[in-house]
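Researcher: Structure prediction, please.
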Amino acid sequence: MVQSLKKILNQRFSKKRMIDFIQSNPESFDEAIVLALADEYPESWRASWLITHVMEVDDKRIKVYVNDLISILGEKPDGHNREIIKILLKMILNDEQEGRLFNKCMNFWENISLSSSLRWTSMKFITRIIKKYPELKNETSHLFEERYLKPLSPGIRRVIEKGL
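Model: Predicted structure follows.
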């Protein structure tokens, strides 16, 4: 009997078993994307997490969903937002998509009440954009002020203090 992806995600199988399932059932990748965009918890978060582990860089199966993924950022819980950003970090985005994602990541970073892991993942994208557009460096230097760093977990804070 073939198990559905939703059942696999609900049973919380091992990472290897979930990856094996999606690789053995290619049609389940589309189901994972639909779940990642949905509000079905915890399956939506788990589907996003699974996608990050099985997708390729600039995965053609995700290209059509990039705008949708960017649009839902901020509407999901912290962990789900983090996993969506991880998916988008593996994609090649056009300028408009980069700009929209940059703005969302800036909002996440500046909201010190959000989880350290979401803020850190957001900073990874912000840093990528600053490297691509060095003229933004001066405009974003305030992001490393103590008020943004203090709420972070000690491990994440050490990485940032060492210079990303």
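Model: The longest helix spans residues 116-132.
Researcher: Thanks, that helps.
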